[in-house]
Amino acid sequence: AQKITQTQPGMFVQEKEAVTLDCTYDTSDPSYGLFWYKQPSSGEMIFLIYQGSYDQQNATEGRYSLNFQKARKSANLVISASQLGDSAMYFCAMRELYGNNRLAFGKGNQVVVIP
Amino acid sequence: DTAVSQTPKYLVTQMGNDKSIKCEQNLGHDTMYWYKQDSKKFLKIMFSYNNKELIINETVPNRFSPKSPDKAHLNLHINSLELGDSAVYFCASSQTPSGGTGELFFGEGSRLTVL
User: Fold this and answer.
1) Among residues B2, B5, B1, B3, which one has the least CA distance to residue B109?
2) In this complex, which of B43, B102, B111 lies closest to A33 when CB atoms are compared?
3) Does B5 reach chain A within 8 Å, measured CB to CB?
4) Which site among A49, B36, B39, B92 is 20 to 30 Å from A57 CA-CA?
5) Number of CB pairs < 8 Å for A and B?
6) Residue from the list B40, B48, B106 with its beta carbon closest to the beta carbon of A101
């Protein structure tokens, strides 16, 4: 069964605007971690941000923030002040306590930033 | 110095051939992975090794055989290549998360095309 769900179609975002990428997850483990990765057209996978299931505060890393709603099992990524270089695929991923360290990835969201 | 390096970056070969992809990490991590990214960009874990021991072996055909000579290396050998094996194969490594996030560090990917 799919553990990470990213269902938004491709998105066009105006430069300097904020964009929210949705991610919902499914787990019964009490401890887990949530990750977001960026994959630009050049193909490399770039780690953006991490949220632990016990973290009390939403994670932030520069222009990236994670809107973590544990009860709803959602971990949305917010990119503020979009830049042209933000155009990429964005993947949400989860590591479960009993998952042998594997990261399970969602299907990704395509974001295109337009000037 | 590249943290996770995999070679070759591109591989074009005929059906039925055998090929290998090599991966090395210089981060001192104890866990390494192989992921397959298909044409729809879906990332699926194939194998994971922790300190040279196989800990994850997803439903992958027997034609795929990983080998970890030491914890810094994880190679992937594929026998009798089929058209459906065409994909980008990513090697990754992580430190067992104990106090840290344990995010995956990815190589640049190896694009395999089977003709």
Assistant:
1) B5
2) B102
3) no
4) B92
5) 57
6) B48
Among the listed residues B21, B28, B20, the one whose alpha carbon sits nearest the alpha carbon of residue B3: B28
Residues 6+ away with beta carbon under 8 Å from B41: A39, A89, A107, A108
Query: What pLDDT score does B98 carry?
Result: 55
3 state SS of A80: coil
The tens digit of pLDDT for each residue in A68-84 reads 999 999 999 999 999 99
Whether residue A16 contacts residue A74, with contact meaning beta carbons closer than 8 Å, is answered with no
Task: Give residue-wise pLDDT tens across range A33-62.
Answer: 999 999 999 999 999 999 999 999 999 999
Q: How far apart are CA B103 and CA B110, in angstroms?
A: 20
Hey, are the CB atoms on A101 and B40 less than 8 Å from each other? no
CA–CA distance, B64 with B66 (Å, rounded to integer): 7
Q: Chain B window 55-94: which residues touch A at a Cβ cutoff of 8 Å? A: 55-56, 88, 90, 92, 94
Give the C-alpha separation, A105 to B45, whole Å. 9
